[in-house]
Amino acid sequence: MTRQIRDLADPVQVSSAGVLDAGLPVPEEVSEVMAPFGIDLSGHRSQRMTASLLKSCDLVVGMGRRHVQEAVLLDPPCWPQAFTFKELVRRGEEVGARRPDQGVRSWIESVQGDRSRASLARRSTAEDIADPYGKPLDQYASTVAELAHLTSRLAGLLWPDEVGYSM
């Protein structure tokens, strides 16, 4: 998402955190598949998701349902702005791109819509992004391609005039 948000009028800060141990470097496969995008992750270290980190977020995007479940367990008030990446883009496309007179938080609220916390209890993985960890390099490349596609769609929904988005 770095390229899509670098030159936006709205200030955007992106953080990465997960459910694994903190301080781990990215797998070599990740560095290899990100290099063509001009992204150097050699200095990146994993960060564990915490309640205090979640409290400072306007939007929480998980790769899978488990990540969203963990976020909501750690910080229950984050529920309205916690989505799997696929769910966020799907629901965002259902409500439409953010209007010029609409703030980001207002758009996120409209995307939240009628979701219920009970939906987190489902066991479906349909809106999860496959974790390539420990799999062949082509699986990492496939995940990166999926993330790039979703990121482009999300940037277009949040900043349609600035990234030239049309559905």
Could you characterize the architecture of this molecule?
This protein has a domain at 51-163: 3-Layer(aba) Sandwich (Rossmann fold), CATH 3.40.50.2300. It contains eight helices and two strands, in the order H-H-H-E-H-E-H-H-H-H. It is 43% helix and 4% strand. Helix 4 links the parallel strand 1 and strand 2 (82-84). Helix 2 crosses helix 7, helix 5 (85-95) crosses helix 6 (104-112) and helix 5 (85-95) packs parallel to helix 7 (137-158). The two termini are 19 Å apart. With 167 residues, it is mainly α. The protein has helices spanning 2-5, 28-34, 51-55, 65-74, 85-95, 104-112, 137-158, 160-163; strands spanning 60-62, 82-84. It has a two-stranded parallel sheet with strand order 1-2.
Helix/strand layout:
Layout: H1 2-5, H2 28-34, H3 51-55, E1 60-62, H4 65-74, E2 82-84, H5 85-95, H6 104-112, H7 137-158, H8 160-163
Parallel strand pairs: 1-2
Helix pairs in contact: 2-7, 5-6, 5-7
Key descriptive features of the protein:
4% strand, two-stranded parallel sheet, 167 residues, Rossmann fold, globular, mainly alpha
